[in-house]
Design a protein that fits this description.
The structure holds 2 protein chains of 2 kinds.
Chain A: H1 2-7, H2 26-52, H3 56-83, H4 86-93, H5 95-99, E1 101-102, E2 105-106, H6 107-143
Antiparallel strand pairs in A: 1-2
Helix pairs in contact in A: 2-3, 3-6
Chain B: H1 6-27, H2 31-39, H3 43-54, H4 57-70, H5 76-91, H6 93-99, H7 104-112, H8 115-148, H9 152-168, H10 176-203, E1 221-224, E2 229-232, E3 238-241, E4 246-249, E5 257-258, H11 265-269, H12 278-294, H13 299-305, H14 311-328, H15 331-342, H16 345-349, H17 355-364, H18 368-404, H19 410-430, H20 436-460, H21 466-489, H22 495-502, H23 505-522, H24 531-539
The chains are: A mainly alpha, B mainly alpha.
Chain lengths: 147, 546
């Protein structure tokens, strides 16, 4: 709190640093005011332009986002690959699994005919949440780079 | 078949579809009107529209028919048709929407800036579109022949003409409301009869699906054979039958074993096991790859994503689509399983795709309820043919008019529509012996071996070059295309060659990815200079407003 006060409140920076006797130097005062106000914004703008101008920093940021999203997608596909893709192999090497019945229905019919769909939807739901969180992190990084 | 409700129901669905299309046309005359209007549509409506366009004859009729014929191993069709949307969600949905591309050829140009690649993509869009249209028309011919007794070509031509005229005159053009209506109609048309069927099965004291003595006829049945087959009777008698042969069975007679189907109870009920037949396992994995990765490459699916306002909405819409089609795919299994009990004659005739439309009558009898439900199912089936064919035809005609005929005038679009609708109609009249779902499965295999690598590598890998993309599409997609043509037009094959051509995805998809990556690395100098800007555009969240 006090730290922020020492640096001046960005909203009204003109109040403290300008003593009355020096009223003869308005241009200088104006310049300082502008610098103070835009101080926090310009860094975000700089990050933005680094993104759009494809500087090394900007490219690294985009690569980070792409890598995070791709890693997320690959992790979830691995989950599906094991959870669903493993089934034909499991049924093939362990035929007894196919003969197990639950409520009078053979397990493969239940897994493929019913359980597969909620599983896919759950993975999709998780992806949407996590992908949006990745994007939020990226947006925060660009808009408040000091964090 | 004297069900007086069927034809009016089919006519009503057709009129409502055409009618709403023309009514909507007055509201949305230009592409931009359509786009602006679509922004006001919630993700749920949009998702229902995508689902309505996606659930085709293959889903509505074909899946149940395959389950009746082959059993548990083909449950991968519905799982894969739904899982395709998960792959689309994970790897494609949001970046593709952000790219601003409307069609696959557009994406090629946005990402790689190559006109020649665009032309190549056009060829594949047309091929996949036609391959997907043929089974829709086949399904229509089969349904009308089954429920109204018309000759096979009538139904196929009817749908072809209605859809072509409708698209050419501008109706149904991206009318979200029609497609969303079709989704709910299809869901209702399968769900409501399924409840009655299950109740009747209970009332019949739950006859076993796989009785110890094998399936048997419940009532006296006359079977007219439609496809050449070898029948093995329980007493060991083997008989060759030809189309047109009539066979008489009394109530309680066992169903003869039919060559090429899983008549044997254990074979039908239990998955393939290792050792006895590795080709089965290969075919299963091939099917999984084709359906999981093929959905993202279907022309009519991608176009719809443009109606989302931004990438985040595209993601949410895809999730809702996944849920909607997931709910739908619970139902065909019920029909396939009950068909084992109530319509075993389809195993002998070979017309297993008709199980969905025949089952209500077979289970519930010729009473009022049975007739009404049969009409409802027939109406749902026609909704499936109309909506999917319209979506496909619009996409195919779109690329033909812009990329093949040149400037996209209204006259050009109409000409393109007639071409795009005429070719599959001719094909459908000449190919009636293939299972609806299997032909659709082949379309998925071609899409998975051509557009899937192009989209996935294009979106996630900076190193993709135009030459690499073209080589991958040509080699992988070309191999899949060759396998399809060999399956559909070539001589009947047996053993491994048959498996490798009827289920090609397990070798063509890795081939396409490998060639695409290898040639891209070898032609690294051709990397587009603006790849950084493109990647930013594909992946940057809209919140940044860059």
């Amino acid at each position: 709190m006090t730290g922020a006060d020492d640096r001046g409140v960005p909203g009204r920076p003109a109040a403290a640093p300008v003593p009355a006797p020096r009223a003869a130097e308005p241009p200088r005062r104006t310049r300082i005011v502008l610098a103070e106000v835009s101080g926090s914004g310009s860094r975000a703008d700089r990050t933005r332009s680094e993104l759009t101008q494809q500087t090394r920093v900007g490219e690294a940021l985009v690569r980070g986002l792409v890598r995070a999203q791709l890693a997320l997608a690959l992790r979830l596909s691995l989950l599906v690959l094991i959870g669903l893709g493993g089934l034909p192999w499991l049924f093939a090497i362990a035929p007894s699994v196919g003969r197990v019945t639950v409520l009078g229905v053979n397990l493969p019919w239940l897994l493929l005919g019913v359980a597969a769909f909620p599983f896919l939807i759950a993975v999709g739901w998780a992806y949407v949440r996590l992908a949006e969180r990745n994007e939020q992190d990226f947006t925060d990084l660009v808009q408040r780079p000091e964090r | 078949m004297g069900n007086g409700y069927v034809v009016p129901a089919i006519v009503a669905v057709t009129l409502v579809t055409v009618g709403i299309g023309f009514y909507g046309l007055r509201l949305a005359r230009t592409t931009s009107d359509f786009l602006v209007a679509s922004r006001a549509i919630s993700p749920t409506w949009n998702a229902a529209a995508i689902g309505g366009e996606y659930l085709s004859a293959a889903s509505f009729l074909g899946v149940a028919g395959l389950i009746l014929k082959y059993g548990v191993d083909v449950l991968w069709y519905p799982v894969g048709f739904a899982a395709g949307y998960l792959a689309l969600l994970l790897f494609v949905a949001a970046p593709l929407r952000r790219s601003g591309a409307f069609t696959l050829p557009d994406f090629c140009e946005v990402r790689l800036g190559s006109r020649r690649l665009r032309k190549l993509a056009t060829v594949f869009v047309i091929f996949i579109g036609w391959l997907y249209l043929v089974p829709q028309l086949q399904g229509a011919g089969l349904t009308l022949a089954t429920v109204a007794g018309s000759p096979y070509p009538v139904g196929a031509l009817l749908v072809a003409v209605v859809v072509t005229a409708n698209v050419a005159l501008g109706g149904m053009r991206a009318i979200t409301f029609v497609q969303a209506f079709q989704y709910w109609l299809k869901l209702t048309a399968l769900a409501v009869p399924a409840i009655f069927l299950a109740l009747q099965w209970q009332a019949d004291a739950r006859p076993a699906v796989t009785p110890p003595d094998g399936p048997a006829f419940r009532t006296a049945t006359t079977v007219v054979v439609e496809h050449r087959a070898t029948l093995t009777f329980p007493d060991g008698d083997v008989r060759e039958v030809r189309p047109g042969d009539r066979l008489y069975f009394a109530a309680g007679d066992p169903v003869p074993e039919v060559s090429g189907t899983a008549t044997d109870a254990a074979d039908w009920l239990l998955p393939d096991t290792a050792g006895d037949d590795d080709r089965g396992l290969f075919a299963t994995y091939s099917l999984i790859l084709a359906t999981f990765l093929g959905t993202m490459g279907l022309p009519h699916v991608l176009v719809r994503f443009y109606t989302n306002p931004d990438g985040a909405a595209a993601r949410r819409t895809t999730l809702v689509v996944l849920a909607l089609v997931g709910v739908f795919y619970l139902l065909p299994t019920i029909y396939g399983v009950l068909g084992r009990i109530y319509t075993p004659q389809l195993l002998v005739t070979g017309q297993t795709d008709a199980v969905v439309v025949l089952l209500p009558g077979a289970v519930l009898g010729d009473g009022q309820v049975g007739r009404l439900l049969a009409a409802l199912v027939a109406a749902g089936a026609f909704a499936a043919f109309l909506s999917t064919s319209s979506g496909l035809l619009t996409s195919v005609a779109g690329v033909i008019s812009t990329d093949v005929l040149g400037r996209g005038s209204v006259r050009g679009f109409r000409l393109a529509t007639v071409i795009a609708g005429g070719v599959p109609a001719v094909l459908a009249l000449n190919l009636s012996g293939l299972d609806v779902s299997q032909v659709v499965g082949l379309a998925f295999a071609v899409a998975a071996s051509s557009f899937c690598p192009l989209l996935v590598l294009g979106i996630w890998w900076r190193g993709l070059t135009d030459l690499g993309a073209a080589a991958g599409v040509l080699v992988g997609g070309g191999a899949a295309m060759g396998a399809v043509l060999l399956t559909v037009l070539g001589p009947p094959l047996a053993g491994w060659p048959a498996t490798l051509t009827t289920q090609p995805a397990a070798w063509t998809v890795p081939l396409a990815f490998t060639v695409m990556v290898a040639v891209s690395i070898a032609t690294r100098r051709r990397l587009p200079t603006d790849v950084g800007t493109t990647m930013l555009r594909l992946h940057a969240p809209e919140a940044l407003r860059l």
